[in-house]
Fold this protein.
Amino acid sequence: LAESYNNMAELLRLLGQVSESLLYHQKSIRIREKVFPANHPEIAMAYGNISASYIKLKDIKTGIEYLERAIRIRESQHNPVHAALGNLYLNYAALLYFLKKIIEAKEYLDSCLSIYKQTLPKEHPNYLAAVQFCNTLSTANSKTKQDAISPKLGRNDPCYCGSEKKYKACCQNL
């Protein structure tokens, strides 16, 4: 049943009905948390999925919280070199890039690529996406160093995540 709820949630998210998808994700997670131990990969997968829905709703903080939970679970597994952890690192790197935290994003992307090199063939779409993203980050990192005079977001400016809160009360401390 939890898997069915998760599938419905993912379908609704893809169809743009993100608020409704969260209801199904939450049902799926409640079942999984009753059935599996707290550090089970199924729970990590569910947290990663619900994270994507929150991020799509521009609730970046909650999305990050779920994504970090998923990463902690996957990192605690006996075999930390698993493509699923690489996927979470890639998602986290993309989110950090969106938040303009280029150096941190590069660290997670490097971890992702390290895992992918051990677990995926070089022609795998995830591996290729990570390599392409690495090139994007390298360009962004060199641009950031060159454009030291680029305008910075002030504490009292509206947050860029779309929450309509001030930056200082939203994403400044992420």
Summary: The chain is about 70% helix and 0% strand.
